[in-house]
Write the C-alpha cells for this entry.
Amino acid sequence: MTNENLTSKRKALFGLFMLIIILGLSLFIPAGTLDYWQAWLYIFLFGGSSLLITLFLMKKDMELLKRRLKAGSREEKERSQKIIQAFAQVAFLSLMVCPGFDHRYSWSYVPFWLVVTGEVFVVFGFYIVFLVFKENSYTSALIEIAEGQKVISTGPYAVVRHPMYSGALLLLLFTPFALASYLDLIFSALISIIIIWRLLDEEKFLSKNLPGYTTYCLKTRFRLIPKIW
C-alpha cells in the first residue's frame, strides 16, 4: 500500500467519523436529550451504510475514494456550483437540526411504522448510491471531467441519467419520517430543489465538456425518476 493510499484511507475514515459527530450534535443538542431513539437508529444506519460504502471503495476503487474526498463549495471549480453547494450545505444542516427541535417540543407525531419505513428508504437510497459507485469510477463529488473519463450508460445509468442523485433524493425525502418530524419536510423539499438545480447545471457542463453525453441524453430520457422525469 502506497503512502498516498494510506493517507486517503485515513482521511476518509476521519471524515466519516466527523460526519457522524456532526450528525449527533445536530440532532441531540436541539432535542435537549439523548432519549431520541429515532435519531440513534438514523445515525446507526446512516453511519453504517456510509462505512460499508467507504470500505468497499478502499478495497475496490481507491481512485474513486480519492475523488470523493474532494467535496464542498470551496472545492468546486464552477462558480455556479460553488453557490449551489453552499446552499446545499446550509439546507442539509437545517434538515438535521429541525427534527431535534421537533422532538423537544413534540410538534409532530409520526407513528412507529412510518419511522421504520423512512429508515428503510434511507438505507435503500444508500444502496442506489453504492450501485452507482460500483458502476462508475468517475463519480466525483465535484462537477469536473477527469482524464480518460467517458460516458457510462450501463447499470443504473441505463435507467436514469443521474442515479446517484436519485439515491440521494430518496434518502433525503424520507429522512423527516425516519427522524419523526413532519416539519422537516420543508427542508427536505428545499434540499430536493437544490439537488435538481445542481443536476440541471451539471447537465449543461457535461453536454459541453464530455464527448458523447448529448447522445447519451437522447438515449436515456429520464433524469431522476424512471418514466416520470
About this structure: Residues 3-31 form the longest helix (29 residues). The two ends are 44 Å apart (CA to CA). Helices lie at 3-31, 37-60, 62-69, 79-105, 112-135, 163-178, 185-209, 213-219. The mean pLDDT is 91.
